[in-house]
Amino acid sequence: MSDELVFYTNPMSRGRIVRWMLEEVGQPYRTELVGFGPPMKAAEYKALNPMGKVPALKHGEMIVTECAAICAYLADAFPEAGLAPAPGSKERGPYYRWLFFGAGPTEAAVTNKMLGVEVPPEKTGSVGYGCFADVMDTLEKAVSQGEYLVGDRFSAADVYLGAQIGWGLQFGTMERRPAFEAYAKRLQARPAAIRANEIDNALMPEQQPAAE
């Protein structure tokens, strides 16, 4: 069985998170670009991801979808990259906590804010993330306790949650708090993050000149 890593993505998607993770891992991989619309909903691609969305990762015969799952998978598949605490270690708990806090409360809260969906105060107990303010306060505390989410060790949790914070600051879907800005600046300066951005930026479609 071939152990080739094949990365299905679009540079204007959450696939940019996985690109960064792949660059941190440092293993060779092949990129397959998938266009939005019909190509992403075609039977051939939906055989890999029935959701018809990117990113997806194929590692030999293994198929993994969902950004957080792909980041967690890659960290465990290539432990030599040092992107996850060892199973059974005391750091494994906070690692899982923040990785999936990004996939759950953060993703939901930021998406609802972007769409203008507000949860009535009396209904926050029925919503997984509670309220947007609680998510922001929790994130601020998390990124203020050290250089990275798991003490002084950079991990896949920083890739996933750090990318969300970076985008939130860029697109105005997160509050511009000093702790967020300092954390995002540290992560964006990493060589792998720089390489990933350069690769995806080069794959962006050319902007057509505005009609006169």
In short:
This protein has about 210 residues and is α+β, with helices and mostly antiparallel strands. It is built from 9 helices and 4 strands, in the order βαβααββαααααα.
| Adjacency order of strands in the biggest sheet | 2-1-3-4
Assign an overall shape.
Answer: globular
Number of helices: 9
Sequence of secondary-structure elements: EHEHHEEHHHHHH
Q: Can you characterise this structure?
A:
This protein is α+β, with helices and mostly antiparallel strands. It contains nine helices and four strands. The protein has helices spanning 15-25, 38-41, 43-46, 67-77, 92-115, 132-144, 156-171, 178-188, 191-203; strands at residues 5-9, 30-33, 56-59, 62-65. Strands 2-1-3-4 form a four-stranded mixed beta sheet, with helices on one face. Helix 1 (15-25) runs parallel beside helix 4 (67-77) and helix 4 (67-77) runs antiparallel to helix 7 (156-171). The longest helix is centred in the middle third of the chain and has 24 residues, at 92-115.
